[in-house]
Write a structure and sequence with these properties.
Layout lengths: L1 E5 L4 E2 L4 E2 L2 H13 L4 E4 L18 H11 L4 E4 L2 E2 L5 H15 L3 E6 L4 H7 L6 H17 L2 E5 L4 E6 L12 E4 L3 H10 L2 E7 L5 H15 L7 E9 L17 E2 L2 H13 L4 E6 L4 H18 L1
Parallel strand pairs: 1-4, 1-14, 4-5, 5-7, 6-7, 7-10, 10-11, 11-12, 12-13, 12-14
Antiparallel strand pairs: 2-3, 8-9
Helix pairs in contact: 1-2, 1-9, 2-3, 3-5, 5-6, 6-7, 8-9
């Protein structure tokens, strides 16, 4: 099982602003230097919840693109790009170009979106998200894999669209979809190279989600062995950052010694997860260093 780290590119409540790109770049390089397999970013435009101040975030694709050039070895993915924010054909073009910049290390993560305030604030359409996603992936997948599509939809059209140049990989970067409901799971089984489930601590809640994904594969006639499974895992370090209230729930957070975190990773590996994406609660370099201790122990368990 591969293990990667997702970077916190949103505001840190303790300081009221996001980490600078300079710091995020240093974090990504530290993730690479300490032996992890991948670096990930997420895609939001703002966070706005009742009775809380609006929280900001850097634009995910811009940070991602910069990291494609800054790093040398790790895979780079998004968890996940919100399809309604960008025209799908343009997003596919962006993915091919990022794959060129990174030398074929890009994973294209896709999702339908869920946070209505950011849709409203930035003028995106928050309705029929499943329909929008379906039209979007039916444009993106053939453009990446075959290099052309002829699509005319209700929300998105790409008439006689062609992907030139094709990028460093003949089939383009792999497509991973974050999905939970029945329709999104079926679309994942039909179109994606990988499925992401998030966020968890111990894998207790993951069993039910995995069973739903396996059922979706059966519905569309997909061999589940051909679908990569990635899982987002929240890891807390009380000594490095104040933990949210939900950190007390072991189903939602892994907290403990490097040996305990390594054991948690092994449980996911034993369940057939191909890629774990760890979300530390701290943006400090020390958090990556602590994670690397668990990574080393986990890899010794796999030998």
């Amino acid at each position: 099982m591969k293990v990667g780290v997702i970077l916190m590119i949103g505001e840190d409540p303790a300081v009221g602003k996001p980490a600078s790109y300079t710091h995020l770049r240093s974090l990504a390089l530290h993730v690479e230097d300490t032996g992890f397999d991948s670096v990930w970013v997420y895609d939001h435009l703002l966070y706005r919840f009742p009775e809380r101040d609006t929280m900001g975030i850097w634009e995910g694709w811009t940070i991602f693109s910069a990291l494609c050039e800054a790093t040398q070895r790790v895979e780079l993915g998004q968890l996940v790009m919100c399809v309604p924010f960008r025209h799908p054909a343009v997003l596919a073009k962006m993915a091919i170009t990022a794959d060129e910049v990174s030398g074929g290390r890009t994973i294209l993560g896709l999702g339908a979106g869920w946070h209505k305030p950011e849709f409203d604030a930035f003028g995106a359409q928050f309705h029929h998200l499943g329909d929008q996603f379906q039209e979007g992936i039916e444009i993106i997948a053939p453009l990446l894999r075959e290099g052309k599509v002829d699509a005319r939809g209700t929300y998105f059209s790409a008439p006689e669209c062609e992907m030139r140049p094709r990028g460093p990989r003949p089939g383009g970067p792999p497509i991973h979809v974050a999905a939970r409901g029945p329709r999104m799971l079926r679309l994942t089984a039909k179109h994606a190279d990988g499925w992401n489930a998030a966020w968890f601590g111990q894998p207790t809640l993951f069993h039910e989600r995995r069973a739903a994904m396996l059922a979706a594969c059966a519905d569309v006639g997909r061999d589940p062995k051909t679908l990569d499974i990635t899982v987002g895992i929240s890891v807390g370090y009380p000594e490095l950052a104040e933990l949210p209230e939900i950190a007390s729930d072991p189903d939602k957070f892994l907290i403990g010694s490097p040996e305990q975190i390594a054991s948690g990773l092994k449980e996911y590996a034993d369940l057939g997860v191909s890629h774990a994406i760890v979300n530390p609660t701290s943006t400090r370099l020390e958090a990556v260093t602590e994670l690397a201790k668990a990574l080393d122990i986990f890899r010794q368990m796999q030998v």
